[in-house]
Amino acid sequence: MRQILLQLVAAGWLLAQLLAAPSAAAQHECAPDGIGVGGFDLVSYRQPGGPQPGLAEFEAVRDGLRYRFANAENLERFEAAPGDYLPRYRGWCAATLSMGRLACPDYTNFKIEDGELLLFELAGFTNGRTLWNTDPAGFRQRADDNARKLLDQ
Questions:
Q1: How far apart are CA 54 and CA 89, in angstroms?
Q2: Does 141 fall in a domain?
Q3: Which domain holds residue 148?
Q4: What confidence score (pLDDT) does residue 133 get?
Q5: Cα of 80 vs its chain's centroid, Å
Q6: First and final CA of the chain: distance in angstroms?
Q7: Are 120 and 153 contained in the same domain?
Q8: Residue 138 to residue 153: CA distance in whole angstroms
Q9: 92 and 59 in one domain?
Q10: pLDDT one-digit tens code per residue, 97-141
């Protein structure tokens, strides 16, 4: 029964994505102001307390997006190893990408998996992270395949 319910929720969520998800674009549609991950400090995702808002005074630019940090120490950590902190799939929702679409995540809905920051959306009653956790390996494989098509990754 639980599996059938999860499948129905996933099907409804997929339908919503097909009707409303943004198309692939060179510009990151989730950052129309040019500020990545909604202004959250990328380093803070890996610290106690989770994601914290960044400040304009502590900013770094990568791949055309400005990333903000809560303090100088986190900015320095990022600048020393940006690849350790940048989100997988350029910040798009990982679960929706696994379904072949792009959607902006809720930047407080995240998971660190295999050392990578994954972001997920919240759509209606469906939590992308909860859905992802039903089959992480399968979702990861599909998201990786679709990232090569949609994001040139």
A1: 21
A2: yes
A3: 87-153
A4: 97
A5: 22
A6: 37
A7: yes
A8: 18
A9: no
A10: 999 999 999 999 999 999 999 999 998 888 999 999 999 999 999
